[in-house]
Amino acid sequence: MPINLNNLSFLELFIINTICYFDIFDYPLTLDEMHQYLFTGGMSGGDYTFEEIKDNLENNQKLKKVITTERGFYFLRNRNEIIETRLQRYNLADKKFKLVLRAMRFMKYVPFVKLVSVCNNLAFFNAKKESDIDLFIITGAKRIWLTRFILVLIIAALGLRPPKDKVQDKLCLSFYLSDDNMDIEKIRIAPDDIYLVYWLATLSPVYQRQGFYKKFIKANSWLNKYLPKWESKVVAYRYRVEDNKLNKFIYKTKEFVYGGFFGDLFEKIAKFIQIKKMSQKKKDLAVHNDTKVIIEDNMLKFHENDRRLEFLEKFEKKRQQIIEQI
């Protein structure tokens, strides 16, 4: 959608971009977050300093017409209530993270698990009470089906697999990549797929091997075109699970055993079982090359309710409304 800049500078536009996007999720931003998440839409020349952003937020008269600050947060005018919303959701998110860590104590023993990250709203501690817990997983090459099969069994045994009628506080394992296919730029729904950009930027890695989070981010260096000041996340110790010597030994042993003929055989069996049990709707969406659902041997994505286009439209509409007020 063409943007009516209304005589805005690039920095003014980028600030409005960022505030408007997070407003969709009732999420006011700190100054540090404004700097790190400054969304340029892929335009060059977005390497603004922290001081430049701060000065514009505090002294730019055009921006002050639509953006205000309170208690260290920046947000659109007349949206003060989202401060309390953010604080309340933080407490809810903390409880949900504990469920992830509980599951990870078992999941970390699964062979070929390279990275497990919390994603979507929970990743930036903005979870609603009724929401489920979305996880993103990277597996070893040619073991994506076997890994998914074992992980699903584990969360089912823990009572954390979501039934259709009750998803609150359940784990949703609906997006997998293999380590030979980590660039996700190809699944964008538009040149400026703003949801995908922030999905990637806000990932919260709760478990990883061999520094795989940084490897994944390096494979997606295109992110910096949209968020030039963004830096990869360092998750607090209380929100991640680490390996120990026993865990490492068991993991390496399993990878050795299932890395050859037996692994290939079990991968085929796991794929057959899962395809057999998969809904026809998922299969149809995958066949029609819809990025909501992707069923490949190096990517499994089961987002039948993929709302990226909806959020993109909301963002563009809100941004234009705000620009027109200046």
Unreliable residue runs:
none
Order of helices and strands: HHHHEEHEEHEHEHHHHHEEH
> How large is the share of residues in beta strands?
5-15%
Total helical elements: 13
In CATH terms, the superfamily of the largest domain is Beta Polymerase, domain 2
Helix content: 40-55%
What CATH calls the topology of the largest domain is Beta Polymerase, domain 2
DSSP strand tally: 8
- Summarize the biggest pleated sheet: 6 strands, mixed
Note the overall shape. elongated
- CATH top level of the largest domain? Alpha Beta
User: Roughly how many Å apart are the termini?
Assistant: 19 Å
Instruction: Provide the spatial order of strands within the biggest beta sheet.
Output: 6-3-4-5-8-7
**Overall mean pLDDT score?**
93
Q: What structural class should be given to the helix and strand makeup?
A: alpha+beta
Task: Walk me through this protein's architecture.
The chain has helices spanning 10-23, 31-36, 50-59, 61-64, 82-107, 144-157, 194-201, 212-219, 223-226, 245-257, 261-277, 280-287, 308-324; strands at residues 67-70, 73-76, 113-118, 133-139, 171-178, 204-208, 293-296, 299-302. It is of the alpha+beta class. It folds into two domains: 10-84 and 310-324; 86-221 and 231-306, 2-Layer Sandwich (Beta Polymerase, domain 2). The strands form two sheets. A six-stranded mixed β-sheet has the order 6-3-4-5-8-7. Helix 1 (10-23) crosses helix 13 and helix 6 (144-157) packs across helix 11.
